[in-house]
Amino acid sequence: MKIYSSEEIVLGGLLKNRSKIEQVSHIIGTDYFQNIDNRVLFSEILEYNEQTKETDDFAGDITYFRNWLKDRQKLEAIGGTERIVELFEATVSGADAPEHARIIQQDCYKRQGADIVSKYADKFNNGSDLAELISGLQGELATLQEIAECKQQSPLKFKSLDTVESKQIQWLWPNRIPADMFSMLVGNPGIGKSFLTMYMTAQLTTGRDWPDALNTIDPGSVLLFSDEESLEYAIKPRLEAQGADCSKVFAYNSLELQSSTFTVQNSLRHLEQYLDEVPDCRMIVFDPITAYMGTVNANANAEVRGVLLGLQQLAQRRNITVIGISHFSKKSDLDAIYRTLGSTAFTAAARSVWAVASEKVDPESNQQPGRLFLPVKSNYSIEVDGLRFDIVDGQVAFSKEAVSGDIDRVMQGGHTASQKNEAKDWLKSRLNSETVLASEVLDDGEAKGFSKPTVQRAANDLGVKKRRSAMQSNKYVWSL
Length: 480
Description:
Layout: H1 6-16, H2 21-27, H3 36-51, H4 62-71, H5 80-89, H6 97-125, H7 130-152, E1 171-173, E2 177-178, E3 182-187, H8 193-206, E4 221-226, H9 231-242, E5 249-253, H10 268-275, E6 281-287, H11 301-318, E7 321-327, H12 345-349, E8 352-358, E9 371-378, E10 386-392, E11 395-403, H13 407-411, H14 419-431, E12 435-437, H15 438-447, H16 452-462, E13 465-469, E14 475-479
Parallel strand pairs: 3-7, 3-8, 4-5, 4-6, 6-7
Antiparallel strand pairs: 1-2, 8-9, 9-10, 10-11, 12-14, 13-14
């Protein structure tokens, strides 16, 4: 008596009982089958089921199914008519098809696990670093385990909000950089991004206040991953110029350290082990973040999101702020939020994105352009302004006044130095002695080249009266 495999039992069960097709297809896919003929037949059963819904099973139209396969030139690929009839007749009811589908599923995971182990064994035999191999092997097996566990349960998981504890946002730099999260700092090459992170490092290692807010975090350590700058000629002198406590700064420099290459993709386990030695770590900087993505395609959303998820989780688990530095692309026609080099997943994953740009000034004036620190994206900030700074004798020096420039205007050549004052002058003229709908004022302001946040800030400075008007369907109106 022939003993049928789980693959054959499933196929026979689906031929006998079409009502099991949907249930089985949620457990396994075509690529779960080891036998190529079985894989083709399963695929054809699914396709046939989608196209023909006349009967509950194949009993009344097995001949039609055979002819359908023949027309598609798949009949010989699955073993011919005899095999279809054999599987159909060997099956009693097909009720056990889902159970055997789970066996197929587990066999597939076992094969995948064996392939992963074999791959790393070959790498070991070829002389690859053992520690890196163990880390990579553990990571891939853990991913496979997660996939297997997910398949055994409903793929949809919901959480009752009454079990969620509300939390207030903690800030590394108040109203600018949220603590314990992943943020980005972007800008063109040579604009001062690295100088700015050295300034932030100095404030965090010494506990000094920010230029616009108190530093509420106890002094702690900072880890720097630098792929582009020399430790001796660039990083250390800049830190000293900023007055950083260099005993609390630890740098990983792939240009100078003779060690295996760190990648976010494969080495987070090693980073977490090192963090055990630096329990007061406040911030980790990757300069640039794209240099530490490993073999990940930086332009592929799914791949980038997957890698950054591990970084986000580490930040939350360790209460550490992670800063990724990147460049703007050359696509100057795009808004700033879409100009970060590589996939948009970088800016999507970041809870805040800040840009460093050169201030645009009237070429006929004698004003020297400074550098602007402007928001591109800020999930948790409230009406945040930008800041202006210069680099003087290696030190970052911030101006006292906030900058209300729109980053997109700046990138496209707009002027920001007196933008709010211009908006205030326009607003006084626009309102004069009138009472005007707020939405109308904001739209008019945009038409004049002022962003809505700029007009809002100008209105606050002028003490504009804002109230609802019954005469205007209870909408907000402004007046001086």
